[in-house]
Amino acid sequence: MNTDNPPVRGSHLGPLVLAAVTIVGIVVCVLLAEPFLGAITWALALAILSAPFHAWIERKFKHPNLAAMISVFAIVLLVVVPAALLVGRLVEEAASGAASVRARVADGELQRLLDAHPGIAPIGKWINQQIDLPSMMANLATWLSNAGATFVKGSMLQVAEVLLTFYMLFYFLRDRNAVARLFRDWMPLGSADAERLFQRVFNTVHATVYGTLAVAAVQGSLGGLMFWILGLPTPLLWGVVMSLLSVVPVLGSFVVWIPAAILLLLDGDWGKALILAAWGGIVVGGIDNVLRPMLVGNQLRLHTIPAFISMIGGLALFGAPGFILGPLAVTVTMLLVEIWAARDKISGRKRPD
Question: Are 285 and 252 in contact (CB under 8 A)?
């Protein structure tokens, strides 16, 4: 007589139901976290970058909450205060600069400059035929003024996101070891592969911020400094523009300083044109080769094409946080592919013929 218990009906459906509920729960959690993607991304990046500083603070102040509060306060002074002053000044300078250009175009100053050089006069005539410069400059000035007003109206949302970023940063710093252990327990990776993954994330954030943003900021600052020394209009605005262009792998600050040098040359300021060209080509263009190895070293090496796709694609997909998330997604995916390829080779060696 068979005394074994009969199989329970639907016992095979249990794992499937559990998997389905888990997937639905993950999707819901992702949707819940989506509005806070920016704050989470910047808090994570700041936590990674400030980890050595926070470790030093923790050694000085043994209390975790106090150490995290001191670290967050120091980061606020170093990041938020200068950024707020810069943005406010930048909005004012952008609007005044556009109004100045509009006035010069309407006054015919650009046309007189082109007429003074017969060699390029056909180019100026073609530009006038194809483009209504006075109307374009008027629209640009209006747009910049409206952008400044929109920025002021949306500043409360920006303030809320900044506060949320530093609120999360406090816990990322205080509980970083517990969070790291939690991720190690959850990930289906061995300890060695998990450590490689954490190191890749650290290297990617470090290289993106220091190797790209910091170098671009230095290049823009040097370019804006020379604009100010030479008496060119709105040096802060053009410095920021040069910084933004320096971030894009296929572009650079030369998109700004080369036309500026040409305009100085056409205006008869040969000395200023040569100084700007030399400064832009040697100092601004060459500082990248000096700073990048010092700040990044060999931590992260991406070809120009995947670097360009990860940065621009990340910005298009996620907005501003995509500047961090794009390269992070590419480099982490590349590492996971390497791990799977290594496992496949090992299993292939063990498989009998």
Answer: yes
Query: Mean of the pLDDT values across residues 332-337?
Result: 87
Helix (H) or strand (E) holding 348: helix 322-350
Q: Are 251 and 266 in contact (CB under 8 A)?
A: no
Mean pLDDT computed over 212-229:
86
Closest CA to 324 of 39, 36, 42: 42
Q: Round to whole Å and give the CA distance between 253 and 217.
A: 11
Q: Which residues contact 48 (CB under 8 A, 6 or more apart)?
A: 201, 202, 205, 206
Over residues 15-32, mean pLDDT: 86
Q: Which residue in the block uniquely carries the two structure tokens 């823009």?
A: 220
| pTM passes above 0.85 | no
Alpha-carbon span 139 to 136, nearest angstrom: 5
The tens digit of pLDDT for each residue in 5-17 reads 555 455 567 778 8
CA angle at residue 131 from 128 to 136, to 5 degrees? 120
For residue 53, give the nearest of 70, 77, 40, 41 by alpha carbon. 70
> How many residues are there in the chain?
353
Contact partners, residue 273, CB within 8 Å, separation at least 6:
261, 262, 264, 265
**Using CA atoms, how far apart are residues 92 and 109, in angstroms rounded to an integer?**
24
